Amino acid sequence: ADPGVDGVVVLLTPQSMTDIEAIAHTVGAEAAAQDKPVLASFLGHVDISAGVQILERNGIPNYPFPENAARSLAAMFRYTQWLHRPRTRERTFQVNAGRVREIFDRIRAEGRTFLPEAEALEVLGAYGFPLLKHAVARDPEEAAGLFAEFGGPVAMKIVSPDVVHKVDVGGVLLNISTAEAARAGFKQITNGVKQKLPGARLLGVEIQQMAAKGTEVILGLSRDPAFGHIIMFGLGGTYVEVLKDVSFRLVPIRELGAHNMIKSIRAAKVFEGFRGQPPADIEAVAECLERLSQLAVDFPEIAELDINPLIVHAQGQGARVADVRIALDAAPRS
């Protein structure tokens, strides 16, 4: 057998003098003598039926079009690659699961299932996610004080268990660059949310350090009724629902699985460096995916979790969580 040939697709276009059955017998005999895949595409319908039966008795699939045979051969190649993929481990990080349990128990005791961003960030912090400086201001003066502590610019976001999509109710201000703007922003956000959602419980305004520019991605968790937690990765920002360029894996994931999630989206080349931009810190993203997987395994009561965006910086410079939302099951899970 030729070592340069890994598989064969036998293409037959019968003519009036073609002995289809004899050819089918020959293909079957040659295939049996080899340890390489053999597929066939005998074109036609009625005239080839006897030959197709011979092929099938010899374990050789016949395809009505050669394109289908080529796609099947390609699928066999991908499956072989998967079988011989490198074996990586499921990493376990040092985390503060006890703190997360305290937060979730308090949320349930208060009759809530949705975590405002400040509480959700505390959960991520307990699991070692890279966070920006942040704190909750209860009044305009405290907002100005936090601005002075963090330095500008900062983002300001409403904190309320009744507000899931903060942007939709005017609950977000970005690039606040002075203490006076922070004071005014506190009043603007709280007054605006009160007008749009009069019954919402307002716990304050989160002051968060603005991240340096980078590539925005989304990390998410949801639970399928049949398969359990599914982890998601894709390009982030406000257009994720439109672009739908995402990949999924079952929890838990291993190191290779995290990297494959990143590589499998259509826009993966963006992370390699695009139009003069440096390559993105893929290792930081992969670690965040693995930490998210561990969080899902440890706390099955998480119904949904979205980190959007995770801002990814240049290679070696890490990534930062800019926004997150977490929702729990209405009833505890074991």
Q: How does this structure look, described?
A:
The protein is of the alpha+beta class and 334 residues long. The chain has three domains: 8-83, Succinyl-CoA synthetase domains (Rossmann fold), CATH 3.40.50.261; 88-131 and 212-334, ATP-grasp fold, B domain (D-amino Acid Aminotransferase, Chain A, domain 1, 2-Layer Sandwich), CATH 3.30.470; 133-210, ATP-grasp fold, A domain (Dna Ligase, domain 1, 2-Layer Sandwich), CATH 3.30.1490.20. The protein is 37% helix and 22% strand. The strands form three sheets. Strands 3, 8, 9, 10, 11, 12 and 13 form a seven-stranded antiparallel β-sheet that branches. α9 crosses α10.
Summarize this structure briefly.
The chain has 334 residues and is α+β, with helices and mostly antiparallel strands.
